[in-house]
## 1
Amino acid sequence: MINTSTCVYGVIGYPIEHSLSPVLHNWFMSNYKLNAVYVAFNVHPSELKNAIKGGSALGVIGLNVTIPHKEALLGLVDEKDRDVKLVGAINTLELNAGKIQAHVTDPYGFTESLGQRKYWFKNAEVLLLGAGGAAKSVVYALEKLDVKKIWIYNRSAQRLRAFLDFCHNALTVSKVQAIDRKQLNDIAFDCKIIINTTSAGMYPHTGESLLRSDVFHDAHFVYDLVYNPEKTKLLLDAEHKGATIQNGIDMLIFQGLESLRIWTKQPLRLEAPKLKKIRHILQSRL
Ligand code: NDP
């Protein structure tokens, strides 16, 4: 029951209507028996500073941050953890006695979502599709997973160049190499692991995929950060050729869980049956 001790958490974004975070976190609150609520705040970019100061003054304990505020907040916080400094993006704020601390839990969410499959990455060659914000977190995670090589394709060459600069200079990851459209399908065939971090294939553009359907085979592991639809065209094509596939729903769950651990300072665990349950709930809300 909500009372004067109830802790308030939330997510800020613009727009925010389609966020699954309130469903996810309120399920966590109930599952871990926390006296807390989690709400969505539609915060216009011009109100960002006021919103976090106001939240802090009201005693809001933690906020998740989504598009378009992940980078805009970098100049508005008091402290950034190491991962934020490296990745250059924020998805979690701790509002603590007037001090605003920033974290990013997407790299953790990606790695944790792999489960035992994370051992497939050591010394592997990986094809990464996309060079946006999510790709930064994934490259950072791939470096920690000790991959051998990361081939990167992006539709816009200019963004790809900026992304390579970021990998080399900010992340100090040198094993990345840019490829163009002509090389894409051959490299996709040769790489055992393919990760899509683009919005191609995401609802409502469900007919889109960056790869030809005949490049897949049964030695492939294909991961798509998109989770709406549950299986994108990329995943359906890969599955059809016998590849192992995974969508982004578990990444969403684990980045959220890590935010909640940061806010509560509790080592919250999510056992397999519970993971299955929340995955199902989220998928049914799409
Ligand atoms: P950004 O806007 O930062 O980057 C978008 C990327 O997608 C760019 O590389 C862009 O290429 C590319 N892209 C978009 N549309 C197309 C298209 N039709 N064809 C080819 N490339 C395209 O977004 P994010 O990196 O933050 O997010 C990307 C995706 O990842 C989203 O679908 C998002 O929902 C998902 N995501 C999932 C998470 C999870 O927890 N599962 C976490 C974070 C993100 P270009 O530079 O050419 O425009």
Note: The first strand starts at residue 7 and ends at 13.
## 2
Amino acid sequence: MSENNLLPYNTMRMNADSKGIIPIYSERDVFEVLVEQLSPLKIIGGGSNVLITQDQDAYILKNEIKGIEIIDEDNDKVLIKVGAGENWHQLVMWSISHNLGGIENLALIPGCVGAAPMQNIGAYGIEQESVFHSLSAIDLSEGTTRSFFKEDCKFGYRESIFKNECKGKYIITHVNYILSKNHKLNTSYGAINNKLEELEIANPSISDVANAVISIRQSKLPDPKIIPNTGSFFKNPIVSISTLKTLELKYPEIVSYPIDDEAAKIPAAWLIQHAGFKGKRVGDAGTHKNHALVLVNYGNASGEDMLSFAKQIQDGVAEKFGISLEPEVNIW
Ligand code: EPU
């Protein structure tokens, strides 16, 4: 394997070449790359939310900027500055060891801190925007540093400005979060409460909630180190209430979560399962047996194999339910 091969750098374990892989440990490293005028540039963090479908005619900057620092605090809150190359779950563990609340529901999400605002990661009733303060990024064409505050990031459901109009334009170097010393836990998500009851924990701590989340995730989501995957492959589609009502007449058991008076989210996993794709495998591409929304590479699937399997799922769901599924992962 060439030293520029991306296979070790993506959790779906796609075999694809690049023009070069350059580790970035500091802002200064970014400026040095810019001075050398290497181009085009692409950025990879944990490689856990990207499906690489072809060789990359680009230099890949591997974000390795580390560090977790408290930069301000009062009686109630702590402002932290985190290197974008820190592992997200390690940050959650750090917050728990410092008894700081706000991200415990986001335990065990793969990937690095720089990807968290990009995707606006979320799980079990919390999205990272609820603790986000600001971030620093370097504009790759101008070579300038810029701060983005919450309103600049245009966060949405697994969305931000960095997946849309600013796609590929910046490398995020640090993210600042506000964590809480007197944290109000959010255990509203059914599965967390059930797990805490099962463990007979009546007054959970931040750490109890993180442990419940870890245990739920481990029971149904495949570990990418064992079965290569990129977590949820599609977004949960948002439909109008009238579409939902029509579907409910035909499929009374359909699952949905109301958003407001006009729209609801339907779990893509439910649609995929009921279109007959749960645990299905075509060659080495498949969906996981415990979770229909997780596409897995059972061995040597190529990017094309994964894409064509994803397309079969999209077609199957569109044909049966009239709903189009949109990938949640970034496709390269
Ligand atoms: N379901 C099925 N079949 C399955 C799995 C689930 O029908 O094979 C149904 C069940 O009714 C279940 C519902 O789908 O109640 C929702 O499933 P789950 O709670 O596992 O959540 P999800 O909607 O599939 C989302 C996020 C996950 C996050 C979980 C928990 C997206 C795209 N995914 O998944 O995030 O961990 O909620 O909050 O929003 C990720 O983004 O990579 C990710 C893993």
Note: The CA atoms of residues 67 and 83 lie 5 Å apart.
